[in-house]
Predict the 3D structure of the following.
Amino acid sequence: MIEVRLFATFREGRDKVSFLDQKDFKNAGEILSYLRIPREEVAILLINGRYSAIDTPLNEGDILALFPPVGGG
Amino acid sequence: MRYERQLLIPQIGQQGQERLEAGKVTVIGAGGLGSPVLTYLVSAGVGKIQIVDCDIVSESNLNRQFLHNTVDVGKLKVFSAKEKLSMLNPNVVLSTVNRRLNAENIEKCIAGSDVVVDCVDNIDTRIMVARACIKLNIPLVEGGVRGLYGYVIDIGRDYPCLSCLGYDKAKQVTPVPVLGVTAGVIGCMQANECIKLLLGIGEPLYGRMLNYDGLSGTWEEVQVKKAENCPVHGNINTVTRGKNNG
């Protein structure tokens, strides 16, 4: 299984944490499509805590974390 | 006695208080995050605080930037902030920089700081501040907010920065929706991290991105790792470490 953790506004209308069958997804990009998160809205994409390209293949047990951009002032 | 209650904290005491009073912090941004950060660093008695901001107060700031009042609309934020903070604690030496930071002036601006706290509102400045802090080996407390969500992380030469996480490639969203309370929560956490770093106590949030969800009322930690090819960490020219940075 792949553990998908969504943060901030990505949680709205979606599960904060979901577990997806690794065999159904070639890479992180396919999970974004499945979750209907536009690629351009992703500010940080981490696989097991490390920055990863959207086409990085996923392995069994990986944790995918997705964050939108934030502000400050 | 002003600091009586925090002197009672075993991790602070008289020695810690003296360390706070010897500390120099640069806070970049005197807005939604900067308001709580500055207020609590001044309250705690940090010795020297440099406030950096080039904006003026506008009415749309007032839902979250509590250092500025309605009568301050149109004033420079650094002056509005300094006015309130010097009344809060006249023992703190406050200096102001009313200038837009850029690649040419950022290092000179933050040099000599024991800690830098990033309270800015755009990705490019965040990356620029991180690059300068890592080059000068100054701990950086980073925070961000969006809606009812936010995060805090500490950044250092030996620990991941936002560029390590690919954030430098993100598309800036403007204006970012923010509830004042959310900026308050995250700013308070940034002030807490800054005080910990000044005192050398506790477990700083290095390599740990602490995420706040105000809708569910939860905090979640994500452990993050340095990137091998990080453009910010790469090609660092080593300089002498600061007194509290070692």
Q: What stands out?
A: The interface with chain B takes residues 5, 7-9, 11, 16, 40-46, 48-51, 65, 67-73 of chain A (CB under 8 Å).
